[in-house]
Amino acid sequence: xxxxxxxxxxxxxxxxxxxxxxxxxxxxxxxxxxxxxxxxxxxxxxxxxxxxxxxxxxxxxxxxxxxxxxxxxxxxxxxxxxxxxxxxxxxxxxxxxxxxxxxxxxxxxxxxxx
Amino acid sequence: xxxxxxxxxxxxxxxxxxxxxxxxxxxxxxxxxxxxxxxxxxxxxxxxxxxxxxxxxxxxxxxxxxxxxxxxxxxxxxxxxxxxxxxxxxxxxxxxxxxxxxxxxxxxxxxxxx
Lengths: 114, 114
Prior knowledge:
Number of helices of chain A: 0
Shape of chain B: globular
Number of helices of chain B: 0
Radius of gyration of chain A: 14 Å
Oligomer: heterodimer
Order of helices and strands of chain B: EEEEEEEEEEE
Structural class of chain B: mainly beta
Largest sheet of chain A: 6 strands, mixed
Distance between the termini of chain A: 36 Å
Number of strands of chain A: 11
Largest sheet of chain B: 7 strands, mixed
């Protein structure tokens, strides 16, 4: 079963604009991670935010986490055509970090038009 | 430091056949997880191996089985293939000993069952 649900399912923007994707989940988590996937290939890890963190930055990426609402957002600033990909949130709800099973949402397909 | 590799990249099988997919973990990683990603969906957790033992399993039938070897590489075996097994199979490695939560994914094996 999929715990995370990304919103929107698809997003099309112009180069230079900001892109915001949202993720909601159902159970308590240890951490939440965002991954990028190009053309149905392997996933590239973008950023991890722990349950006791509220905001994290990495380059042009900004992630927020609201555990009370069980939601997260990924902001990509100054988007580039190379950012075109599917973006997934994944939650780790394993107790005590026993096996780090990740539960993924269905993803947001981001298209950045040049 | 080498990344996660998977073989083969593509595979075509017929219903009822058996398939073995292979994964080499990233250098220094002792944990391998396998995921199935159907078209248009997020990855779903199949199982995880740590120190050559299964360490957690998702909602997949017993005909999905695996192995982990002393060098931490891993195999995913699927018996009695069904059409719905057509998917991208991803493996991911991590370092459980040092509580590394980030999972690093390989490029995947695309399996088509006819």
